[in-house]
Amino acid sequence: MTKRVLTLPGGRPSRLVVLISGEGSNLQALYKATANPAYGAEIVGVVSDRETAGGLQWAQSQGVPTATVCLGDFPDREAWDSALTAAVQSWEPDLIVSAGFLKILGPKFLAQWPSRVVNTHNSLLPSFVGIHGPRDALRAGVKLAGATLFIVDPGMDTGPILAQVAVPVHDDDNLESLTERIKVAERAQLVDSVGRMVQHGWWIDEVRAGFESD
Ligand code: GRF
User: 26 CA to middle of ligand 1, Å?
Assistant: First the structure.
């Protein structure tokens, strides 16, 4: 296995770009964490693939620059990939956090920031890939659900796993209650993990990933 270590430049806050499609509760948790200079990061831009993402307005209300790059506005996925890459590149990010972004990132985007794009997903991968993690966990009758932070590769929710957190599935859970329990744990994991990446770095090999601080 070839292990590679990645670290971010010190001496200044690391520049984060966050990709969203929805309400942006993960984005808000990250933003709150960055208020502490010791966290070591700032959010320099937020991108959505849809105008309706509630997190966009929230980011604007905080004075964070935003962009919307809708797949439907482009002739094909390749053109969308290029436009998304250019929009994010304009903010010169050190690390990109996909937090509820409901599109598969393209090859150009991933080549621009190798091993520097992370995604938070609301299941214990490799179970329940795709956009219905909590629903699929309920349907499968599992006793533990959770969230996974991983380094994005070209597949759907297949990249090397950085961190996972489990929550119980209660017998009387419905989609709403389980989704909310997962989101609470997911937000805490995301804030903790991005902080570790920024402050200490991370490593990746062909299969696995982890924090340099562990
Ligand atoms: C997260 O639970 C993420 O895992 C899933 O969508 C949710 C996004 O929530 N794909 P938010 O927009 O950060 O509130």
Answer: 7
